[in-house]
Amino acid sequence: MCEVKVITGTSAAAEAAKLADVDVIAAYPITPQTTCVEKLAEFVANGELDAEYIKVESEHSAMSACIGAAATGARTFTATASQGLALMHEMLFIASGMRLPIVMMVANRALSAPINIWNDHQDSIAERDTGWIQIYAEDNQETLDSIIQAYKIAENENVLLPVMVCLDGFILTHTVEPVIIPKAERVRDFLGVYEPKHAYLDPDRPITQGPVGVPDCYMETRKQLEDAIERSKRVIKDVNAEFAELFNRKYGNGLVEAYNLDNADTVLVAMGTVCGTIKYVIDQLKKEGKNVGLLRIRTFRPFPKEDIKDLLKEVDNIAVLDKNVSFGFNKGALGIEMSSILKNKKVCNYIVGLGGRDIKIEDIKKIISHVEKAEDDETMWIGLKE
Amino acid sequence: MVTIAAIIYEPGNSIRNKTGTWRTFKPILDVEKCVKCENCYIFCPEGAIQEDENGNFKIDYDYCKGCLICMNECPVNAITKVREEK
Ligand code: SF4
Ligand code: SF4
To answer: Per the database record, which ranges form the 4Fe-4S ferredoxin-type domain (chain B) (predicted)?
Structure first.
């Protein structure tokens, strides 16, 4: 049996870290992540979770402490957002380069300046190339489930990479939803005990981690990392399927989720909570006899190229929504990736919801009617004031 | 074969992994000019300078990284540099 709690996304993330029975948490509070690490502090303080809680003076230190802890063989968790994630930037490369299976919750928030605490995806997208796996959740339940899955993916011997689970700031972090909390024993059975073979602290087996990688060997380590993140695609799918069997919930095939794709000639492609609004619009249009589909990208890294190509092969109009922008190219990251893999198709890019700007039902409808008439490769900013 | 994350699993591996492969300049020690003050021996960050059985100082090029600190520290200019030939 399980329990249902009506909780926020950050509480769901904290519950997940508790269920994963983490050994070390190092964190610095930053809006809108704070309530997650506050909850975890409470769990540790009242004895519900037996973990080392390291209070640090910055996010750079939080990630450094997680790296140190993970290098000893501990299961490690942290959480951050926006400027905090940016401050971790250099340590993110070290975590992935040292192949440490750290799991982190990212409460997606816009970057300054101007100071903005509301949601978009610019923060985690900016960390695209750090070698971390990135999962984008659509709701609070998926946040909890994804963090549990993330440990199983990260710790898989064919992967050994850190994972960030991203949830939209405020839209999920501060909104309550009923969330099913699985029984701790069942999660323990699913995850098992983390027993690192490559990186752990043992005085009887002295090893050097994070050594100098001279030109003689550096490139090989980078190729190993690329191969590992490529292999993670299979692992993410398997973990999603195994999770579905045990807990009766699944998220597409783990990498992508198809919604009403059969026979749709117009398809929207997006990540995170906006997919909920898109699904609502799709259902409405369906009643009016119009067939529009959604392809939700759950993992932005590894990028599910093969699944996307396969699922969109019959589709004429592809509208990609991005809550981020690559300045100087006037497209979002997802739009750029989609154009690069779907060369003979019409792919248009829509920049939406920056800094918490609402994405309304009318906006989604406007995108659908625009892409149907548009030329290939158009970019449009949606919701701008005149 | 490079191990995962280039982790080094056995101690003393520097016997196998020479660190003097990426030198641009090579220090040359002229034993005739040397006054045996030990400055280079003390300052070399790699411990690449040793005293041989005759009491002369000698550079171990397997581990010298070519930083030329020794050259700068030598009071009698007994150490000079040449470009490393690869
Ligand atoms: S060049 Fe640098 S490393 Fe080489 S012997 Fe001189 S001080 Fe030592
Ligand atoms: S510093 Fe110069 S003089 Fe002194 S021991 Fe070295 S080479 Fe000889």
So the answer is: 25-54, 55-84
CB A180 within 8 A of CB A2: yes
Q: Is the ipTM of this complex over 0.90?
A: no
Q: Give the tokens for residue A72.
A: 């000893």
**Amino acid in position A257:** E
Tell whether B86 lies on the interface with A, counting CB pairs under 8 A.
Answer: no
Question: Domain boundaries in chain B?
Answer: 19-83
Distance from CA of A96 to the nearest CA of B (A): 9
Q: What is the CATH number of domain B19-83?
A: 3.30.70.20
Alpha carbon nearest to ligand 1 atom 3, residue: B64
Q: What is the C-alpha separation between A168 and A171, in angstroms, rounded?
A: 6
CATH topology of domain A256-381: Rossmann fold (3.40.50)
**Exposed/middle/buried for residue A203 (C-beta within 10 Å: 0-12, 13-18, 19+):** exposed
Q: Do domains A3-247 and A256-381 have the same CATH topology?
A: yes
- Dump strand ranges (E) for chain A: 3-7, 24-27, 52-55, 76-80, 103-108, 133-136, 163-168, 177-181, 256-259, 266-270, 292-297, 299-301, 317-322, 346-351, 379-381
B83: enclosing H helix or E strand: strand B79-83
Domain ranges of chain A: 3-247, 256-381
Query: Does residue B78 have its Cβ closer than 6 Å to ligand 2?
Result: yes
Compute the residue count for chain A. 386
Q: Is the pLDDT of residue A85 over 80?
A: yes
**Model-level pTM greater than 0.90?**
no
**CA A177 remoteness from chain centre:** 19
- Residue B4 in contact with partner chain A when CB distance is under 8 A: yes
pLDDT in tens, A122-166: 999 999 999 999 999 999 999 999 999 999 999 999 999 999 999
pLDDT over threshold 70, residue A1: no
What would the pLDDT profile of A167-184 be if each residue is shown by its tens digit?
Answer: 999 999 999 999 999 999
Q: Which CATH class is domain A3-247?
A: alpha beta
User: Residue A131 corresponds to which tokens in the numbers above?
Assistant: 């070698």
A216 touches B: beta carbon within 8 Å: yes
Q: What is the helix (H) or strand (E) element at residue A235, kind and residue range?
A: helix A218-247
